[in-house]
Amino acid sequence: MSKKTQFVLISAVVTTSVLLSGCGLFGGDNAAKEIDPPKDVTYVKDEKSLATEAKVTEANKKQSKAAETSAPTKRELYLIDKNGYVVPQTLEIPKSKGVAKQSLEYLVEGGPVTNLLPNNFRAVLPADTRVLGTKLESDGTMVADFSPEFAEYKKEDELRILQAVTWTLTQFEGVNKVKIRINGYDKDEMPVNHTPISKGLSRADGINFDNTGVVDVTQTKPVTIYYLAQEGKQTYYVPVTKRIASDDKDMYTAIVNELVEGPAPASGLVTDFNPDAKLVAAPKYADGELTLNFNKNIFGNLKGTEISQHVLDSLVLSLTEQKAVDSVAIKVNGKKTLKDEKGKKLTEPVSRPKNVNTGSF
């Protein structure tokens, strides 16, 4: 029996079944009357045509899924600038389900970040390093497993690698600590300069350390301050961990004073604060909001009641590094009279921006 004869017989059986069923596949008698009887030319197709249609449909599905996956998203990656600082840069990279693994892959020298690097910045992980996997444990520890090439770095880059990996991964919700594996094995210390890492690392361990003038670290506490650096006409923020002699009650005041004083002269960093800016009252904290009351010198050299965006950002970034602080409100001599550089009144507290250093240069 030929294929065409078989098809005609099957069509006859299907047609009879539908008519006998009354309310059949197409919704009953009325629906059945509106449908033309099948024609051989419409339904007799060779196997090659059917196979081609199936392949096209599957290809379209894959293309659609790939387009959805590759849609760009902003990600904060910690890279190394010309001065050797580990600096957050917000770059657009393809959207991916495995965000932690992908972010680490963008820290590899010669990897996918190459064409996205800002001027005078470099990736931190050794070339050819592969990210074998990432796993978030129930206690908030992210385990990152690297290939053996991970160990092929210069001694002076060891802390930079630890800081870049830790701060890149802890940007994600639920990640509090980072542990490192090499080729599936946990490590108690780093392979080159032997920095201890058995307990894992967090942002509390600091970044870009500056211990200038510190005699006894046991009498100090670490805080992270955001200073400014320049590349051409562009300015970007650099987090620096300093140790300050202060108790918990004076921590916020100490951070403000460090910002006003500015970075060490040889650091290559700058501040936009007027050196005469001072708090006229102790900071007040309530429900995640920190209120600062400055003298008029917080305005700097700007006209009227405008505050420099760099001053505002440095305050917010530095103070929200403290666990309890979600936003910062600023007053001048007890009044909310400030405006930003665009003339917008700052009547509401300012929250930490979602991404840092979003400008390209």
From TrEMBL:
Query: Which InterPro entries did the record assign?
Result: GerMN (IPR019606)
Stretches that traverse the bilayer: none
Q: Where is this region: Disordered?
A: 341-361
Domain GerMN, residue spans: 100-191, 252-341
What PROSITE patterns does this protein map onto?
PROKAR_LIPOPROTEIN
Question: What protein does this entry describe?
Answer: Germination protein M
